[in-house]
Amino acid sequence: SPMSRKIILDCDPGHDDALAIMLAVASPELELLGVTTTYGNVGLDDTTRNALQILELCGSHVSVYRGASLPLVRNRISAEFVHGKSGLEGPALPLPSRGAETTRATDFIIQSVLDHPHEVTLCPIGAMTNVATAMRLEPRIVPLIAEVVLMGGGTELGNWTPAAEFNILCDPHAAHIIFSSSANVTMFGLNATHQALAMSQHIAAIRAGGNRSSLVAAELLEFFKVAYHQRYGYEGPALHDPCVIAYLIQPDLFTLEGMNVTVDINEGVSFGRTVCDIYNVLNLSENARVAMKVDADGYFDLIAKRLAMLP
Ligand code: RIB
Ligand code: CA
Hints:
Elements: E1 5-11, H1 15-25, E2 30-37, H2 44-57, E3 64-66, H3 80-83, H4 105-115, E4 120-124, H5 129-137, E5 147-151, H6 166-170, H7 172-179, E6 185-188, H8 190-193, H9 200-207, H10 212-232, H11 242-249, E7 254-263, E8 274-277, E9 288-294, H12 296-307
Parallel strand pairs: 1-2, 1-4, 2-3, 4-5, 5-6, 6-9
Antiparallel strand pairs: 7-8, 7-9
Helix pairs in contact: 1-2, 1-10, 1-11, 4-5, 5-7, 9-10, 9-12
Bound molecules: alpha-D-ribofuranose (RIB) and calcium ion.
């Protein structure tokens, strides 16, 4: 519809990816053109099946397009111990009744942007190989992409190494391509997403929706919570990926700052770090708007309200 914003969600479900998919499906402000999948939390076959299962759970027939199964240069890493072997451990979901499209993710991304110049927002919330490869296969799309709103990196510490956040570390070269592409980039990093821990009252509010999708979302968060407590000692799991969708629906939940962000692609201790020049000491050009503050209660209110509207 003319009023809603066209987006492509590029994801590696993954518990928080699953809630991002649900929030996107539940939000009339957004027109989800398609879901593209990548390796990341788990392998491509599992992330693709998980995306199909979640879409089916929330009654969506949006097409799914398979993307990369490996990073551009480095070896593949994964996060089974956080998301379980299937990548969506916790709720028992029926196997999907449909498969992914035959069209590849990169071809879908390229064609969608060419068909709708300046109207499509790309939302990578996993390894960023698909978006980077699309930019390389068809450089014409870069100035035609409305915005790249990504979950990844951070202005402070990493969560996979002391320096690097998981999505960026999965494929630092892909992230480097995106940040240096001159595309309009908005970054939701750990410094922001760690302000959005799903505490018990937030999970309870989601569960209180009572509908199937809300109950599954609450179950996903309960599983996600265990891994977060074991590894980081947090009381609640950081709900990273839905920040990207919430920003598109209700931007005033977030405070953003423009700055230069450079991805470290040297294979040393800081490989995959997003070096954020908050005080502009290097006087380099601004290439991203970086989320610095999150209204956590408003964020979880939005999620609980929207998920309650799903089947
Ligand atoms: O570091 C957090 C990110 O890594 C999230 O997108 C999560 O789903 C995993 O992909
Ligand atoms: Ca993810």
